[in-house]
Specification:
This protein is mainly beta. The chain contains four helices and 25 strands. A hairpin with a 2-residue loop joins strand 18 and strand 19.
């Protein structure tokens, strides 16, 4: 059995909730910690909230959580809670005020972005804008609008059942062309390379980890023959999606947005900083 006190054998802290002073109860035996916590689930009530590496507004944003997504809280410390996103297991600190009671969500946003209104009327006051993938509970429908708890509304054609999925993840990703690049972002106002892949795949029903190295390790299988639409191209610290054998779709910090560009020159440019392509993988 691995020694739980040996740092070389400890599980990845990005997706396993442990610190030197605290660990999740289910890691007992894997992690040597003075305190273990069982945790409790809460749901995001803000349009989006940052998951940070430390409990401070200036700390690195590793990812974001969208409205309605679940977060398992293991510790509450002043305005911050520490825990784990239930959608992709990412661990970090979230503002407590952005979390509320965990309820079963029935739908999710399928439009790139939509508004939640005070009334079932396009002229009523918008309360917030929500991004593709945000989770909602819909108890009923009023005309062209879906009713939400608390008396708010969203345009019904901008949402779908939580268990309904798109069929072409490349087509989903193409809808983000022009969206700004944002390190750690997962929303339609800004996202990074691995979030583009994660969002597109999750909207098609595929489980997908958050970071590009995690995606490289588990998504699909290596490609040994001709390239095709949907192939995932991995460099060190970067990932893109092939729209076809000659065109790369990716969120990148050169253009600072999601772009579609010729694959060959993009590969040469990326290689100057990230090195050669490490793998090309294809979803089943």
């Amino acid at each position: 059995m691995a020694d739980p006190s040996d740092p070389r054998t400890k599980p990845d802290p990005r997706v396993n909730p442990w610190r030197d002073d605290l660990a999740a109860e289910h890691l007992r035996g894997e992690i040597d910690a003075p305190v273990y916590a069982r945790g409790h689930d809460r749901a995001v009530v803000a349009p989006v909230t940052a998951l940070r590496r430390a409990p401070a507004h200036g700390a690195m944003m590793d990812t974001q959580l969208l409205l309605g997504e679940k977060f398992r809280v293991y510790e509450e410390r002043g305005p911050w809670v520490w825990g784990q996103a239930q959608s992709d297991d990412y661990v970090g600190y979230v503002l407590a005020e952005d979390l509320g009671v965990d309820i079963a969500m029935t739908h999710r946003v399928t439009a790139l972005r939509s508004f939640i209104y005070t009334d079932p009327d396009i002229k009523s006051r918008p309360l917030m804008a929500v991004s593709m993938g945000a989770r909602l509970r819909v108890p009923g429908v009023e005309g062209a609008f879906a009713a939400l708890p608390g008396g708010s509304y969203i345009f019904a054609d901008h949402i779908g059942a939580a268990d309904a999925h798109s069929h072409d993840f490349v087509q989903v990703a193409e809808r983000f062309i022009g969206v700004p690049y944002l390190w750690g972002g997962r929303e339609s106002l800004g996202l990074d390379c691995s979030a583009l892949v994660q969002t597109a795949l999750s909207m098609c029903g595929h489980a997908c980890p958050r970071d590009s190295d995690m995606q490289e390790a588990v998504l699909g299988a290596p490609v040994s023959g001709n390239l095709a639409r949907g192939d995932l191209v991995f460099w060190k610290g970067h990932v893109g999606i092939l729209q076809d054998a000659d065109t790369l779709l990716h969120a990148n910090a050169t253009h600072m947005c999601v772009v579609s560009e010729p694959f060959a020159p993009a590969t040469k440019r990326i290689g100057e900083t990230a090195g050669d392509i490490r793998q090309i993988r294809r979803m089943a």
